[in-house]
Amino acid sequence: MLHIPTMSGKRLQDEAARDWAVLTEDQREDIEYRIRLALGFIMVTGVFARWQSPGELPHWQLIIETTWCSDRSERTIARALKQAIKIAKIDVPKNGVVLKDHQQ
Predict the structure, then answer these.
(1) By the 8 A CB rule, do 28 and 96 touch?
(2) Close Cβ partners of 37 (under 8 Å, ≥ 6 residues apart)
(3) pLDDT tens figures, 50-103
(4) How far apart are CA 102 and CA 104, in angstroms?
(5) Domain boundaries, the chain
(6) 62 touches 35 (CB < 8 A)
């Protein structure tokens, strides 16, 4: 399996204990970096990512947009996201990371 290092080279704290409602900027950058690397590993390219602060959801949300999704089924997109999260070894709350077409 692919090893995804942290952006800083330091070991992440226990992902299960991470509270996505209060992620620091460094933690968000690290999560985004790891997800981007994992998506690249499974050939999802052209990624634009942005963080949405807690509002309607009780936690931060990483929105990933890419043209890769434009001709894929929702099932294929969901499978790719699940695989990337697994490769990145990140515990993600429901709707914590969204992968979608950049035109949606």
Answers:
(1) no
(2) 4, 88
(3) 999 878 778 999 999 999 999 999 999 999 999 999 999 999 999 999 999 988
(4) 6
(5) 24-46+73-104
(6) yes
